[in-house]
Amino acid sequence: MKRLVNFLCLAVISVCFMASNASAQEREVDWEAFGKNLVKAIQSNNEGLQRSAMCMIIRYADYLDVKEAKFDIVRVFRSHKNPKVRQLAMVTLYHMQDAWAMGFLKRNIKFEKNECILKQNCCIVNDYYAKKEAAKGKEAVITISAR
Q1: Tens digits of per-residue pLDDT, 41-89?
Q2: What is the model's pTM?
Q3: C-alpha closest to that of 96 among 42, 46, 30, 147
Q4: 21, part of any domain
């Protein structure tokens, strides 16, 4: 019993130490350099690197300025044959919170053929514009829907 208590105490202390260490590392990140490298990764011809960069943009969007990559991500969204990669690009554009990219996604609703992407596109556009209206102090009215 005593060994179990000691083990649990050690485990709790270890978890606390790792959590504080992870938050300290997050504060030491050079977000500007990280963003520039992600833009370069998106602009590369390596699909795996592009996908990984889009995942990182989604995860750390609050810390990054990667607006330079919006045209490349839109190109992936428009032209990729795999619908899952297109969804990844669409979610990346949403997390970037760029007005031009969201306008593109809004216009895309009329022409989208994939039903799953269409529904997600509508949800993304509605959420973006609802948040934009809420920031202005207005009540959001959702008007965009799938066919």
Answers
A1: 999 999 999 999 999 999 999 999 999 999 999 999 999 999 999 999 9
A2: 0.75
A3: 42
A4: no
